[in-house]
């Protein structure tokens, strides 16, 4: 499967040069030259995003600040060799991988491999976190439903737990659905 990479640079020429440097069958490269074009894309669809700063319509550092907090796709900032330390510190704070110009083909490919590998591993972690959050929400819901059964029907915690499981099995519903029904029924009784 090809890894999707976005290249955002200030000129079409820079975009074409970077695309050509990455040009192999492993990467599907898309290019844009403006911040507004970046904002129109779903950046989570890319395995890595490369910004050659400055961009056509702004420096790009403000955009990287925004993206660092709102997206999980890894970012590489390609910057001038004489970039001020304050700007460099800001990019590092935003967890951007930094490449200073001039960029060699081998360094660009190495950065692409590193970032796309990181994206794959972080996607697995995000999936695990999502599953754990779902289970945690289900446990909270189960606790609330058991509390309703204890308060409204005088059940013990073990009996309430068994009741929920049996009701879910008998109605062929999810435990979450049954818990929501019990909570709703309990609020009607109040």
Keywords:
single chain; elongated; Arc Repressor Mutant, subunit A; alpha/beta; 7 helices; 190 residues
Notes on the protein architecture:
This protein has two domains: 3-103, 3-Layer(aba) Sandwich (Rossmann fold); 130-189, Winged helix-like DNA-binding domain superfamily/Winged helix DNA-binding domain (Arc Repressor Mutant, subunit A, Orthogonal Bundle). The chain is elongated, with a radius of gyration of 25 Å. The model has no long low-confidence stretch (mean pLDDT 85). The protein is built from seven helices and five strands, in the order βαβαβαβαβααα. The protein is of the alpha/beta class. It has a five-stranded parallel beta sheet, sandwiched between helices.
